[in-house]
Amino acid sequence: MASSVEIPRRPQAPIEVGISQCLTGAAVRYDGSGARVECPHAELDGLFNYHTFCPEVGIGMPVPRPPIRLLGDTASYRLVAVHDSSVDKTDEIEAFGRAQVASIANLAGYIFMHNSPSCGLNGVKLYAHESVRARRRATGIFARTVTASLTELPVADANRLFDARLRENFVMRTFIYAHWQNIAEDLNTPHLRAFHSRYDFLLMAHSPAANQAIERLLHDSNTDIENQASSYIRLLMDGLQQPTTRKSHANVMSHLQESLKKHLDSTDLQNLGETINAYQRGEQPLHAPLALLKQHLRTVPTLYDLARTYLKPIPHPQATL
Predict the structure, then answer these.
(1) Among 85, 117, 124, 141, which is least packed by CB within 10 angstroms?
(2) 162, 185, 206 - which closes a domain
(3) Is the separation of the CB atoms in 195 and 6 below 8 Å?
């Protein structure tokens, strides 16, 4: 989807991201320790400016302090002291979370401390009333409050970022969300279409279904711009969370190859096609056809501009994606 409408350029690193304060090494955990080693800082170096939050300290709990846990069932659970369940911090943590939503909404993503009863995103220990045995099936109270209000915000449990593929996906989504924030306040339908033209190929690689849904949305003249934008960013962020496959990458690269037909001779086109097919069969790594595509697309600036975010989803010199 080409567009001549001008929109702000993609943001460059570092971008603004929230993080659980303990993950920066601050000694704010219940036992007076920090948790810097629980986040892959070396791999994220230079990408983010961090804005730190600790809900437990934020509501006035001391350091060190008695430990807390989640108690109840998946439908209804509370945040209480481990040794005295009458000490209930649920309402205070929820209120703190609601108070932080406005400032977090201005950020491009958030990294939560995993397993934390206040900050954990997934698989936090939940203790049933009738048993001391816990199951990992809950979300921390603060994390639940924030994500319920900011449904499109890219978020991650810190320990999942040690996985290179999950880390790169999270970082990619934060940069795209930061770009979205740059245009969202002054939005009209041409701007929305121009924005998507930058991410069309990238989304196609992650979720062809989401990309098709967006194409339908952008051609629906009966939807007002606010609803269109709200539906758009939800589809985009949800779609980009889906993992790419050899088939989906090959599909995108074949589309780009088709766009190059008028600009390449038959030998170059054949070589590119054979390299894409070899990649899809598992005989070549992804960088082999991508390198050829970059070489050829650079000779056609308009095509290269549209494919830029697919070729390099993270605009940072250290990015490996």
Answers:
(1) 85
(2) 162
(3) no
